[in-house]
Amino acid sequence: PDKEEVYYQAMRDKWTERLTGNSYWAGDATSQEYKNILAELDTTVDEILPLLKTDGGNVLFSDLELKLPSNVNTTNSDDSVNFATTVKRIQTLAKAWASKGSKYYQNTDLKDKILYSMDWFYTNWYNENLDNKGMFGNWFHWWIGIPQNLSGAIILMHDEMSKELLEKAAA
Fold it and tell me: Distance (Å, rounded) from C-alpha 96 to C-alpha 101?
């Protein structure tokens, strides 16, 4: 790998550690605190997975309706919270997939669902055609929350993502 790729990989590794704590807990994987953290993460994923729809339809999570509000100039957080929650869930799934000790660690079925979710969200909502001047709801969701959680998911899944999906994610 070239110098830039080594640098970017090191940055991804640091961010992965920030999200998963894999190396932090490596010396104490039997710790009750660590087991509790992983159990909570696994329980959250257990709750998310039944809501995930991978049938190619216009819904990603059955309990979250993603739609444009009637007034696109609204600043009501309720109008954008489902978008932020969607991406937070995708990152949570990716975090479980990447966390050593999680029952979902490097689970192939979960990986496929995460990659599907990332592609679905790009295709249906969050892509280069999104008008950032016409974003609705809470600005924090669009400018900080969604990008940060999506970036986390991308970093955690980077080595599993196709070149095409990586290019979409960079758009």
Answer: 9
